[in-house]
Design brief:
Strand order of the largest sheet: 3-1-2-8
Shape: globular
Number of strands: 8
CATH superfamily of the largest domain: YebC, transcriptional regulation domain
Oligomer: single chain
Helix content: 40-55%
């Protein structure tokens, strides 16, 4: 899973470089999660997960509070979660998760991002079957054995625990996100280098050097779309 972790780090670093865009996307996610349940993370698990993710991206408290307060109001903005799947150069696979209040606009923008950069859209299921939904946590200052002991004591099952780049990486089923988080918090661990619900490719692929720029252009264009929340792919871009 090492290369998969490198891709997550790379994607996160890329997003960290465009903070205003990330803050806006998290503001929308927080609003939707708070609107769908109680605007209190202690009683709204979906909101709690989003806030934990926002914390690893250093989303300011003011943005979080504003989104939650907006959800408490009478105004109603209807958002729909949609997933698009497609292909980049050399058969590379891409998944695009969106949150939109205008389906036609979003579909057109995603399709254009593929077609104008040498990719093409696929039908539902054409790509996602090669990915696994996964909860990923990264933390520093602990060994693999220490993390394993914490999770065993809490009776939490995970897929894998690895040590990479001086950090311990935990891969778990998506529905175990809260259980893993709470197990760590019970031991006083509240800071994570990553706390994400993501889609990991079952097999990473490499693409020719002369296709890398084209592939990265597709990814960058997709991530620039306001309604796009996450972009996943199966390409090993190295470190």
């Amino acid at each position: 899973m090492g290369r998969k972790w490198n891709n997550i780090k790379e994607k996160k670093a890329s997003k960290d470089a465009s903070t205003s865009r990330i803050y806006a996307k998290f503001g929308r996610l927080i609003y939707v999660a708070a609107k769908q349940g109680e605007p209190n993370p202690e009683s709204n698990q979906a909101l709690k997960v989003v806030l934990e993710r926002a914390k690893t991206y250093s989303v300011p408290k003011a943005i979080i509070d504003r989104a939650i307060e907006k959800a408490k109001g009478s105004a109603e903005e209807n958002y729909v979660e949609l997933r698009y799947e497609g292909f980049g150069p050399n058969g590379s696979m891409i998944i695009v998760d969106t949150l939109t209040n205008n389906v036609n606009r979003t579909a057109a923008e995603v399709r254009a991002a593929f077609s104008k950069n040498g990719g093409n859209m696929g039908v539902n299921g054409s790509v996602s079957y090669m990915f696994d939904a996964t909860a990923v946590f990264g933390l520093e200052g602990k060994s693999v054995d220490e993390v394993l002991e914490i999770l065993m004591e809490a009776d939490v099952d995970v897929r894998d625990i690895l040590e990479e780049d001086e950090a311990v990486i935990v891969y778990a089923e998506p529905d175990q996100f809260h259980a893993v988080q709470e197990a760590f918090k019970a031991m006083g661990i509240t800071e994570f280098t990553v706390a994400e619900l993501t889609m990991l490719a079952q097999n990473d692929v490499e693409i020719p050097e002369d296709s890398v720029a084209q592939f990265e252009k597709i990814i960058d264009t997709l991530e620039d779309i306001e309604d796009v929340q996450q972009v996943y792919h199966n390409v090993d871009l190295g470190e």
